[in-house]
Amino acid sequence: MHVIATAGHVDSGKSTLVRALTGMEPDRWEEERRRGLTIDLGYAWTTLPSGQDVAFVDVPGHERFLGNMLAGIGPAPVVCFVVAADEGWQAQSSDHRDAVLALGIEQGVVVLSRADRASGQRLADVLARTRAELAGTGLQAAPSVAVSAIEGTGLTELRSALDDVLARVTAPATTGRVRLWVDRSFTITGSGTVVTGTLAAGTLARGDRMELVGHDNSRPVVIRGLQSCDTARDSVEPVSRVALNLRDVAAAEIRRGDALVTPEAWPTTGVVGIQRTSGVAYTDVPEQLMVHVGTASVPARLRPFGADHARLVLDRRLPLVLGDRLVLRDPGRRSVLGGARILDADPPALLRRGDGANWAQRLAGMDPAGDLLGEVAARGAVQADHLGRLGLLSGQDPAQLPGLRVLGNWWVHAPVLEAWQQRLLAAVEELQQRDPLAPGLSMGAAVGLLALPDERLLPHVVDGAQLEADGGHIRVPGSRDNLGPIEPAIAGLEHRLTAHPFQAPEADELTKLGLGSRELAAAERAGRVLRLRDGVVLLPTAPALAMRALAALDQPFTTSQARQALDTTRRIAIPLLEHLDSRGWTQRLDAGHRTVVR
Questions:
Q1: What is the tens place of the pLDDT at every residue in 332-354?
Q2: CA 222 to chain CA mean position, Å
Q3: Residue 16 host element (H or E)
């Protein structure tokens, strides 16, 4: 299916034309039919001669309902632009032209309606004026057809022209994330809440879980059922008009301008950086204006950075990404100010003096197609899934981008990674120089020092700085062997224990040597001593030497027998035996017996 929105001045015959093409009444309200004036969006559908299904979104032409018109044309990729042949180009025609230009719509058909009320020369004049007005828009070369919906003349040619235009429309992606802008919400007895919208990309299926981005908050919902053109479907592909029966939400909780999106696939933002694509220079527009995107209409505050770039602060958060097209409207004059393209969907906060100027310079240099390296450089480090949500990942290989490093799920700017490495190395070396006995810089302190966005980045920084991490601390390789001022004391202790392996020094002896718990911990990290409970200090070779003596005993053996075999005291024997138990070398059988595990 394809979806076509109408456009054109009030009383141009748009609804009459849709009615003639489809045989359906697009005006939904009794007041519309009574007054002959379209107030809100209307919907109808038909099948063209080629067999192509097409749905129409009929929009109002009156200036009072310009907001409704923008909600209808916003999600549609094709436009049927109508000008009444007997009235010619009108002021509202210019508003609708400006909307088409702002949204970047490039496919459509120009229809001169009520051709039965105009002469051949009049038709030629109106068409010439229309062509001149549409110059510079995507419809400047659009096919044109003169039609009389009352007499039926030109309808065959119009259907053929629509077929030709739709054949040139690029097929949308049927896979990937979905963003459905809601244009209606209502309740059907026996079914519950139903919302409608134009599915522009992706696929919807019954049972899908979606996220409803509403005016006040976001919430999960489930698609209970779906229809397209009054026909129940298991799934629907783009571009289609769809009606979704939702579970777990009341119709009153959903309004036009809300969006149904694939969960965790879209960012929501209340601030965007934009580039002017049409209309008035930003230095000449009011600070307070209305922003239209999809079916949403949101008050916003504009801060210009020159004529062509600006920062928009929206009244509420919306699911917006790079490249989204916006229409800016002056709420006081009910006119379109121009169009904008989002360049930055997640701009940084401007907190310090100069932040605005720096960001504006970057914004002005951004590629409308997306600047992946620039985005990563501006943030230092960004998770890949966030870049995907912003619309910046389009199959680019980060390995082909100079200055970019991929660390797990993080994309890091190379200079930032290098700065982290240099700062970490300097901090670790300074600590080692100041305190040789320190175990190293703790992991937590390193994460805080570098202000890393994710502690999982730290191992990559450690490796890049050619440091080593062990036991929750980071140090220079080989530094744990450097015992500094306690080296003589440790050497003397080693000499004593080599001669008498199980004659551990008493606490006061260690104190005289200047070996407290901190000094002994450093020696243990260096592999020079083994610390057991109750302050027992031996050489690392002591357990193996003990096993030789214990293996020579009759099995099982008592603690007293072990003490005698090792020529030591009970103070030392019990912690040593418990250590052997913990290593699985001996097994305690009861309160007084152990055996060697063979």
A1: 877 899 999 999 998 888 888 88
A2: 22
A3: helix 14-22
